[in-house]
Amino acid sequence: MPMDEDRRDLAADEPAAPRRVAEHLVDNAEKGRFELYRGESLAGWLYYTHLSPNRYALRHTEVDAAHRGRGVAGAMVTQVLEEVRSRAGTVTAICPFVVDFLSKTSAYTDLVDPRHPGYADRATAEAALREARD
Protein backbone atom coordinates (compact mmCIF):
# COMPACT_ATOMS: atom_id res chain seq x y z
CA MET A 1 0.00 0.00 0.00
CA PRO A 2 2.72 2.58 0.73
CA MET A 3 4.04 2.08 -2.79
CA ASP A 4 0.69 3.10 -4.28
CA GLU A 5 0.65 6.23 -2.15
CA ASP A 6 4.14 7.12 -3.38
CA ARG A 7 3.01 6.74 -6.96
CA ARG A 8 0.04 9.02 -6.38
CA ASP A 9 2.28 11.64 -4.78
CA LEU A 10 4.63 11.57 -7.76
CA ALA A 11 1.75 11.91 -10.16
CA ALA A 12 0.40 14.86 -8.19
CA ASP A 13 3.79 16.58 -8.46
CA GLU A 14 3.92 16.29 -12.25
CA PRO A 15 2.99 19.45 -14.11
CA ALA A 16 -0.42 19.36 -15.67
CA ALA A 17 -0.57 19.30 -19.45
CA PRO A 18 -1.27 22.80 -20.78
CA ARG A 19 -4.94 23.40 -21.46
CA ARG A 20 -5.77 24.24 -25.03
CA VAL A 21 -7.64 27.53 -25.05
CA ALA A 22 -10.09 28.17 -27.86
CA GLU A 23 -8.83 30.69 -30.40
CA HIS A 24 -10.81 32.73 -32.85
CA LEU A 25 -9.86 35.36 -35.38
CA VAL A 26 -11.87 38.56 -35.86
CA ASP A 27 -11.52 40.97 -38.77
CA ASN A 28 -11.88 44.35 -37.11
CA ALA A 29 -12.17 46.32 -40.35
CA GLU A 30 -12.92 49.54 -38.45
CA LYS A 31 -9.44 49.40 -36.86
CA GLY A 32 -7.83 47.85 -39.95
CA ARG A 33 -6.61 44.79 -38.11
CA PHE A 34 -7.18 41.12 -37.59
CA GLU A 35 -7.48 40.22 -33.91
CA LEU A 36 -6.70 36.85 -32.35
CA TYR A 37 -8.62 36.00 -29.21
CA ARG A 38 -7.62 33.21 -26.86
CA GLY A 39 -10.70 32.48 -24.87
CA GLU A 40 -12.21 35.90 -24.21
CA SER A 41 -8.83 37.66 -24.12
CA LEU A 42 -7.41 39.71 -26.99
CA ALA A 43 -4.01 38.06 -27.44
CA GLY A 44 -2.67 39.73 -30.57
CA TRP A 45 -3.46 41.78 -33.64
CA LEU A 46 -2.13 42.23 -37.14
CA TYR A 47 -2.65 45.60 -38.84
CA TYR A 48 -3.43 45.51 -42.54
CA THR A 49 -4.47 47.73 -45.40
CA HIS A 50 -7.12 46.26 -47.68
CA LEU A 51 -6.20 47.14 -51.25
CA SER A 52 -8.11 46.60 -54.49
CA PRO A 53 -9.17 44.26 -55.81
CA ASN A 54 -8.53 41.78 -52.97
CA ARG A 55 -5.01 42.34 -51.70
CA TYR A 56 -4.03 42.72 -48.07
CA ALA A 57 -0.85 44.58 -47.14
CA LEU A 58 0.12 42.95 -43.84
CA ARG A 59 1.81 45.84 -42.04
CA HIS A 60 2.43 45.17 -38.36
CA THR A 61 2.01 42.36 -35.84
CA GLU A 62 1.64 42.89 -32.09
CA VAL A 63 1.12 40.51 -29.19
CA ASP A 64 -0.30 41.54 -25.83
CA ALA A 65 2.38 41.39 -23.11
CA ALA A 66 0.42 38.79 -21.13
CA HIS A 67 0.48 36.42 -24.13
CA ARG A 68 4.07 36.79 -25.32
CA GLY A 69 6.18 33.68 -25.67
CA ARG A 70 3.15 31.46 -26.23
CA GLY A 71 3.10 31.20 -30.02
CA VAL A 72 0.41 33.84 -30.50
CA ALA A 73 2.08 35.65 -33.42
CA GLY A 74 2.64 32.46 -35.42
CA ALA A 75 -0.87 31.18 -34.73
CA MET A 76 -2.33 34.55 -35.68
CA VAL A 77 -0.38 34.83 -38.96
CA THR A 78 -1.44 31.29 -39.87
CA GLN A 79 -5.10 32.11 -39.25
CA VAL A 80 -4.87 35.43 -41.11
CA LEU A 81 -3.33 33.72 -44.13
CA GLU A 82 -6.03 31.04 -44.07
CA GLU A 83 -8.67 33.79 -43.89
CA VAL A 84 -7.13 35.61 -46.86
CA ARG A 85 -7.08 32.32 -48.77
CA SER A 86 -10.77 31.76 -47.99
CA ARG A 87 -11.46 35.19 -49.50
CA ALA A 88 -9.45 34.34 -52.64
CA GLY A 89 -7.12 37.21 -51.75
CA THR A 90 -3.40 37.86 -51.91
CA VAL A 91 -0.94 39.42 -49.48
CA THR A 92 1.87 41.93 -49.62
CA ALA A 93 4.26 41.21 -46.75
CA ILE A 94 5.52 44.37 -45.08
CA CYS A 95 5.65 43.31 -41.42
CA PRO A 96 9.07 41.79 -40.58
CA PHE A 97 7.44 38.95 -38.61
CA VAL A 98 5.14 38.05 -41.53
CA VAL A 99 8.07 38.25 -43.97
CA ASP A 100 10.07 35.88 -41.75
CA PHE A 101 7.08 33.55 -41.32
CA LEU A 102 6.51 33.31 -45.08
CA SER A 103 10.22 32.69 -45.73
CA LYS A 104 10.07 29.53 -43.59
CA THR A 105 7.21 27.78 -45.36
CA SER A 106 5.97 27.15 -48.86
CA ALA A 107 2.39 26.59 -47.68
CA TYR A 108 1.36 30.16 -48.48
CA THR A 109 3.42 31.07 -51.56
CA ASP A 110 0.21 31.08 -53.61
CA LEU A 111 -1.05 33.98 -51.48
CA VAL A 112 1.90 36.30 -52.05
CA ASP A 113 0.90 38.86 -54.67
CA PRO A 114 3.27 38.36 -57.63
CA ARG A 115 3.21 42.04 -58.64
CA HIS A 116 3.48 43.39 -55.08
CA PRO A 117 5.10 40.71 -52.91
CA GLY A 118 6.47 43.06 -50.27
CA TYR A 119 9.89 42.50 -48.71
CA ALA A 120 12.01 39.48 -49.60
CA ASP A 121 13.48 38.95 -46.14
CA ARG A 122 13.17 40.08 -42.54
CA ALA A 123 16.36 42.19 -42.57
CA THR A 124 15.14 44.24 -45.52
CA ALA A 125 11.72 44.71 -43.90
CA GLU A 126 13.30 45.83 -40.62
CA ALA A 127 15.65 48.23 -42.41
CA ALA A 128 12.72 49.79 -44.27
CA LEU A 129 10.83 50.13 -41.00
CA ARG A 130 13.77 51.89 -39.34
CA GLU A 131 14.15 54.20 -42.33
CA ALA A 132 10.46 55.10 -42.23
CA ARG A 133 10.74 56.01 -38.53
CA ASP A 134 13.73 58.34 -39.09
Quick recap of the structure?
The chain is an alpha+beta fold and 134 residues long. 35% of the residues lie in helices and 27% in strands.
Task: Break the fold down into its secondary structure elements and pairings.
Layout: H1 2-13, E1 23-28, E2 33-38, E3 41-51, E4 55-63, H2 72-86, E5 90-93, H3 96-103, H4 122-133
Parallel strand pairs: 4-5
Antiparallel strand pairs: 1-2, 2-3, 3-4
Task: Provide the CATH architecture.
Answer: 3-Layer(aba) Sandwich
The helicity comes to 25-40%
Radius of gyration computed on alpha carbons:
20 Å
Nearest-integer average pLDDT: 87
Number of individual domains: 1
Number of helical segments? 4
Identify low-pLDDT runs: 1-17
What oligomeric state do the depicted chains represent? single chain
Order of the strands making up the biggest sheet: 1-2-3-4-5
Described by strand count, sense and barrel closure, the largest sheet is: 5 strands, mixed
- Which CATH class? Alpha Beta
In N-to-C order, the SSE pattern is: HEEEEHEHH
The third-level CATH topology is Aminopeptidase
Q: Would you count the extended β strands for me?
A: 5
Structural class: alpha+beta
- Give the terminus-to-terminus CA distance: 72 Å
Coarse morphology: globular
